[in-house]
Design a protein that fits this description.
By secondary structure, this protein is an alpha+beta fold. Helices cover about 45% and strands about 25% of the residues. A hairpin with a 5-residue loop joins β1 and β2. The longest helix has about 45 residues. It binds adenosine-5'-diphosphate.
Length: about 900
């Protein structure tokens, strides 16, 4: 290759390359171009290289102008890359379509083109004329068969370029093309290096932190302005796209970008941009962003204005994909710097996107793991605290304290539904003044904020600000406003689908309830709901156990009758009072246990709550074959009717005794008193003979004796009651005693009645108080005579076996009905208290007899048949 004729400039040694080491003096002829370009090849950046070349070319060819145009990569146009002495007319902006004008023709024909007289030529750029050029010589710059540009020189004065000039310019052109090729290759290599370095930095950055928000912000600072002017990372959050990293090369641009993101967030369904890229996983490259594209993508005029403010000229959107999933999109754009994104940039961006996605996923996984661990620890703590909580109140306390602290709330409360489901009871509260807690202790469901909505529909409330609270629960707006809280969270407490209450948390600040926070409260609430239910069951069990203990110890009989009429519960007192065991009673109809229940139950009052019924009507019921007077009252419960009863039999008997005593005593005392009074009056007022007077006095004496006996009986009965009667046991002959009694009583027998002793004659030594025994036998014989108004035989039999002496008094009188036989031994009890049969008596004889016989360690019994007679038996131990 030849050197270029020198112009006084000396070449400078290149920093690299073998062909550039030589420094040669410029020589004329074919060698000229070599010097120019060889030296210039040392310049690696194309711009300065071309600028430097221009002067040398002008001098070498003695031209007035020199222009180097380069072809666009797509070979459609030429643009001026270096211009000498033509600067005023030609700017960077000049574009020449290939095939058009002078330079375009050189590029299209790939041949040197000479114009000797511009005036004669047609279809040349007017700028050439404007510069006043007359002659032109242009050669194509070819590299590997492609036209990479055009080099032309011009002369103001007419000039005929010679073949030698053409050859020289072609030679220079070849060198320039080569230099361009090298420079471009170098540029490409440098950019590849830059990319690699950038990627290395990105990798380092992405692996340096597990906080992806922080990482994405730093990635933005790395990408802007090296890669782009505008940077935006969008992440998928459920169904939404949320901005996660944002950067811009100038403050106004950043402002516009932030506003754009805030007001017009990307959506998954949009036809272009982040939404589409996330949806399809396919990247987007817009080498040039045209006005029409902006207008088509804008949602309204303001959107369009914002997009225009960003002034994006070229853009790339790539997916953030990892393991087949797209986590979001990375968008890059360049502004008016003139750069254009190409395939290399897209590849780089895709690579960055993949690396960023991995880092984001790591961060998310780490965060999820961390949250899960924190949650597990929290729940473990709650479990421990719940272990010590026994009552519902304790559990609610744990729930509200843990909820408040885990979510950073200012206050919180837990309320449980009352049994009727219409009222809430606040069982735990934290962070409220005590008077407020007191005021809201029991409130109807409709008055508690959110309760209706949450308890009826099971909806949770996650309201991030006071405005949201007021919008959802307008009726609580004034009260909520007064409290001065912002955010509010309310969730139901439920177990097995049954809602039993709610927990509410109040926050002083606006609060975002992201998924993690919600999960924590829901987990604690779920755990506590279980514990609340457990505590409720335990309470109920304890209550039942208590109730059972109480029922086991009350004196009143208590039983429960189910809706089917069968006994479901029978307490120990009921067992005791009726003699019927609970296991026998339970499951059977009441009527089978208490005779006459059906008739009696009509008289039993049943209330709807305890105490509503009166103290209980005494009704006669047959218990184990015996009539008993029971005072029964009932209370209806959801599970049937609970009856309580007490046995009034003895009270009734006492009452009856009192009545009997009054009627008997008044009769018994009045009769002899009347007789004494009558006889006394007769003695005073009437003239009586001796015999009549004696008869009167005799009557007075007899009646007084009778009065005395009655009074003595009364005294004795009373002393027996008080246990003041002492018996002195000794040995006596039972047969002799029987004879004595019969002879005493036998002296005054009514007509038609006989009285005799039955015995085999031998003496029977009996252990007794002889005076008391005589009194007993006399009373029995007396009764036998008294209650045999139609006469008959009365016998007093005496016999003995190995152990006892037996006295049997038999009569053929009126007899005693079976139902009364036990009662005749009661005090004042008389079968015929009204004395319809005219037989008097105190009703004390048999009572006194029984009590005396008992005190002598014996027993007394009766057998009788009405109308046929009676048989009284007294047994006493034999004397030893
Ligand atoms: P009273 O003073 O009435 O005889 P008692 O205690 O001796 O009192 O007897 C109580 C009641 O028992 C009598 O009122 C009578 O109705 C009945 N009674 C006692 N003995 C006989 C008998 N042998 N035959 C029929 N009834 C009798």
């Amino acid at each position: 290759m030849a050197g270029v004729e020198g112009d006084g400039h000396s070449g400078t040694a290149g920093a690299a390359g073998t062909a550039t080491d030589r420094v040669e003096r410029p020589k004329p002829g074919r060698d000229r171009p070599r010097v120019v370009t060889e030296e210039s090849l040392a310049e690696l950046a194309l711009g300065p290289l071309l600028d430097d070349l221009l002067a040398r070319i002008r001098d070498a060819l003695n031209a007035d102008t020199v222009v180097i145009l380069l072809a666009e990569p797509d070979q459609s146009e030429l643009y001026a890359a270096a211009v000498l002495d033509f600067e005023e007319e030609i700017s960077e902006r000049v574009r020449v379509p290939i095939g058009k004008g002078f330079a375009g023709r050189v590029a299209a024909t790939r041949q040197p083109v000479v114009i000797e007289d511009l005036e004669q030529a047609d279809a040349v750029n007017h700028l050439l004329r404007k510069r006043g050029l007359t002659s032109l010589l242009g050669v194509p710059l070819c590299l590997d068969g492609d036209v990479v540009g055009v080099l032309h020189v011009g002369s103001v004065s007419p000039r005929a370029f010679e073949p030698a000039d053409i050859e020289v310019l072609e030679g220079i052109g070849e060198r320039i093309a080569l230099a361009i090729g090298r420079a471009r290759a170098h540029q490409a290599e440098r950019r590849a290096h830059e990319r690699l370095a950038f990627l290395a930095e990105v990798s380092h950055l992405l692996s340096s932190s597990l906080d992806h928000e922080e990482t994405l912000a730093r990635l933005g600072r790395l990408a802007v302005p090296r890669l782009a002017d505008c940077y935006l990372v969008t992440l998928v959050d459920g169904e939404r796209l949320v901005p996660a990293g944002i950067a811009h090369s100038d403050p106004q641009g950043l402002e516009a970008l932030e506003e754009l993101v805030r007001r017009y967030p990307s959506a998954l369904d949009e036809p272009r941009g982040a939404g589409r890229v996330v949806r399809t996983g396919e990247p987007e490259l817009a080498a040039a962003v045209h006005e029409e594209t902006l207008a088509a993508g804008a949602r309204d005029d303001e959107h369009l204005a914002l997009l225009r403010r960003l002034d994006m000229r070229s853009s790339i959107v790539v997916p953030l994909g990892v393991a087949g999933r797209t986590l979001g999109a990375l968008a890059l754009a360049v502004g008016p710097s003139g750069r254009t994104f190409g395939a290399d940039d897209l590849r780089l961006a895709e690579d960055v996107g993949r690396r960023a996605a991995t880092a984001i996923e790591n961060s998310l996984l780490h965060r999820a793991e961390h949250e899960a661990r924190t949650r597990a620890e929290l729940l473990q703590g709650v479990t421990e605290r719940l272990a010590g909580a026994r009552t519902q109140r304790d559990v609610a306390g744990v729930l509200v304290r843990e909820g408040v602290s885990a979510l950073g709330a200012a206050a919180g409360w837990v309320a449980l539904l009352g049994p009727d489901g219409r009222e809430l009871e606040m069982v735990a509260a934290v962070g409220y003044p005590s008077d407020v807690v007191e005021e809201y202790r029991n409130i109807p469901v409709e008055d508690a904020i959110g309760a209706q909505d949450i308890l009826v529909h099971g909806r949770q409330a996650w309201l991030e600000s006071a405005e949201e609270v007021v919008a959802r629960f307008p009726q609580h707006a004034p009260a909520y406003g007064r409290m001065g809280y912002e955010a509010l969270a309310i969730v139901p407490l439920e177990v097995g689908g049954v809602r039993m209450g709610l927990v509410a948390l109040n926050f002083r600040e606006r609060t975002t309830f992201e998924e993690g926070k919600r999960a924590v409260l829901l987990a604690v609430t779920g755990q506590c709901s279980q514990a609340l239910e457990r505590a409720r069951l335990l309470d109920a069990l304890a209550e039942r156990a208590n109730a059972a203990v109480v029922l086991a110890h009350v004196d009143d009989g208590v039983f429960q009758v189910g809706a089917d009429g069968a006994v479901r519960y029978w307490n120990p007192a009921a067992e005791h009072l009726t003699g019927i065991a609970a296991r026998t009673a339970v499951g059977r109809p009441v009527g089978e246990l208490l005779g006459g229940w059906e008739e009696a139950s009509a008289a039993i009052e049943v209330g709807t709550r305890p105490g509503a019924a009166s103290s209980g009507e005494a009704v006669p019921l047959v218990v184990a074959g015996e009539e008993r007077w029971l005072a029964v009252s009932g209370v209806r419960t959801p599970d049937g009717t609970v009856y309580a009863f007490r046995d009034l039999t003895s009270e009734r008997a006492l009452e009856r005794t009192r009545r009997d005593f009054l009627s008997t005593a008044s009769h018994e005392l009045r009769t002899p008193l009347g007789a004494v009074y009558g006889a006394s009056l007769t003695l005073v007022h009437r003239e009586l003979d001796e015999e009549q007077r004696d008869a009167m006095l005799d009557l007075i004496v007899r009646e007084c004796e009778r009065l005395t006996r009655i009074v003595e009986d009364l005294l004795l009965a009373n002393n027996l009651d008080l246990d003041h009667v002492h018996v002195a046991l000794t040995s006596a002959d039972a047969v002799a005693l029987a004879h004595e009694v019969v002879s005493v009583r036998g002296s005054t027998l009514p007509e038609g009645l006989t009285l005799a002793v039955d015995s085999n004659g031998g003496a029977i030594e009996v252990a007794c108080d002889p005076e008391r025994l005589r009194q007993v036998l006399l009373n029995l014989v007396d009764n036998a005579v008294k209650y045999s108004p139609d006469g008959g035989r009365v016998r007093l039999a005496v016999a003995a076996d190995d152990l006892v002496a037996r006295f049997v008094v038999t009569d053929e009188g009126i007899g005693i009905p079976a139902g009364e036989q036990r009662r005749i031994f009661e005090k004042f009890y008389r079968l015929d208290p009204e004395l319809r049969r005219g037989v008097g008596g105190s009703g004390l004889g048999l009572y006194i007899s029984r009590e005396l016989v008992r005190r002598m360690d014996g027993r007394i019994a009766v057998e009788s048949e009405p109308g046929r007679g009676s048989r009284f038996v007294v047994e006493l131990p034999l004397a030893r």
